[in-house]
Amino acid sequence: MKVILLKDVQKIGKKFDIKNVADGFALNSLIPTGKAKVATDAEIKKVEALKKVIEAEKKIQMDLLTKNINEINEKQVTIKAKANSKGSLFAQLHTEDIVKAIKESIGADIHPDFIILPKPIKEAGEHDLQVKVGDKKVTIKLIVEGTK
Fold it and tell me: How confident is the model over 85-120, as pLDDT tens digits?
């Protein structure tokens, strides 16, 4: 069955990819959980148009960030997250959470694809993040404060 992925699906593909998968997998797993929808001609056209819009926005954002990348270098961002007494977070921090915190504290609007996490953030403390735009890289210090 031909489906359009609505989310990144591990070992299948990325968001908006059009993939052929087994009928049972599509009908019993992907479609009911909202990870995919059936790829009709109309839906494929919608997705292609949406992809173009997203790529255009990403290019504009990349151009702006390239011009202003030095302003965010060596900045600090603080995120509060629930953690146990040993400092282990109850839920791992995702790039979307980090993007939101960067926008709130620094004012920079960064696309999640530009953030490079060396490893998943599961502990409270200081973490260095890389923001890579084109051929330029800068570092942002992420401070995760554990709360109860």
Answer: 888 888 888 888 888 988 888 887 787 888 888 888
Give the mean pLDDT of the chain.
87
> What DSSP string describes 114-127?
GEE-SS-EEESEEE
Give the separation between CA 137 and CA 72, rounded to whole angstroms.
Answer: 10
- Per the document, the length of the chain is 148
Q: Which two tokens stand for residue 135?
A: 């051929």
CA neighbor of 19 nearest in space, from 30, 28, 125: 30
Q: Which residues contact residue 96 at a Cβ distance below 8 angstroms, ignoring those fewer than 6 apart?
A: 112
Q: How far apart are CA 89 and CA 83, in angstroms?
A: 4
Structural domain count, the chain? 2
Query: Which residue, 31, 63, 95, sits at the end of a domain?
Result: 63
Domain shared by 137 and 74, yes or no: yes
The CATH number of residue 32's host domain is 3.40.5.10
Query: What does pTM read for this prediction?
Result: 0.59
Domain that holds residue 9: 2-63
